[in-house]
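As noted in the main text, all predictions were made from sequence alone. Below is one such record, for ATP-binding protein.
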Amino acid sequence: MDLDERIERRQRRDDGPRLLRDLESLSPVAHVEDPSDRGPVFERLLDHLDPVFDGNLPPNAYLHGPFGCGKSAVVTALFSRLGRLPTETRSVIHTSTRAAEPTSPGFVYVDMRTATSEFAFYRNVLNALVEEPIPRHGISTDEVRARLHRRLGTSRTGVVVAVDHVTGPGSVDTDELVDLFAGLPSNVSWLGIGRAPPAETQLVEYTASTIAVDRYRRQPLVDVLMQRSSLGLAPQALEHTLARRIAEWADGNAHDALAVLFIAATHADAANRTRLTEHDVTEATTEMPSPSISLGRVLALPPNERLVLRRLAELRPEERVSVGRTTEAITADPAVDLSPGTVKRFLYELAEDGVVERVRVEGSDGRGRPPSRIEFPFPPTVFRRLYDLRQ
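Prediction:
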């Protein structure tokens, strides 16, 4: 934690002790500048990107690993740092053995969960390369692509684009991704990031190398939890014994471990405690579905679908016993300005995409379509709080 953060924490103090200092710091979809225990991954990525320090582009690559192993955290941290290197006419960091002063490519990170169209993809890339923001409306895809060609056409070094979430549920398929990059100039290379092992994706046919990321080991995951606790909670709010228990439960998945910490802290704060207890952690692990899906995927949904999920996450179990009953409960909320037909369609589409689950209700009489209870493959407490923080 730097000095500015320490001063800011003290400025936020009130007259009494508080458990929650910065809830966003506990978020499983937030990333820190220096992810814990990812040094070897950083080194492998830097080995791959080493040509940029001579002003050249690296070949395409694919970085892969299981859910919650910190792939996005590593790449966003590294690309953020590399993006600060001087570009074009100014020299980059280089060793004393290099007499020349090469220039550095640009670095762009694109989350394919939010760049769900050709326009959004090209706009995100261009937006990262120019100072003036590119509008979301009133400009065509062809114009954005033409501007990209003009921008990169004047670059001697090009750009490296990290494309995250390119394999797995709801991701872009290989052909679509290849077509997107075919629409860019030749001085672009890309780093694909996904969950699927190389043998299970055609993406590697277009890459020169693959980089594996393993699950967190237990002690480093404890360190992640303690680091986030120091940023988001009161001092000594999380004991090492509880952090070890969460890390053991999460089995190397940092996303789920942080979700448990988030829920436990929320429970403890609601009870006006300044320290987490065993009961808070037990309640949190009970709420977590197994398996879970990424909250980043849920929060990347279009606004109306997120609104429906936000109201859904407030409903009591008896209000979710069928799609029809759930639709009635959601549309009864005056904040939901959507028709029952639209809400019902969203629920079915979200179920098809795996964002919610339809569980057949036992004991139905067998006439017509059996009723389906709506359940969550993500922790609703975390979603509710993160949704509200972003409004």
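The longest helix spans residues 254-270. The first strand starts at residue 61 and ends at 64. These features were considered when defining construct boundaries for the mutagenesis experiments described in Section 2.9.
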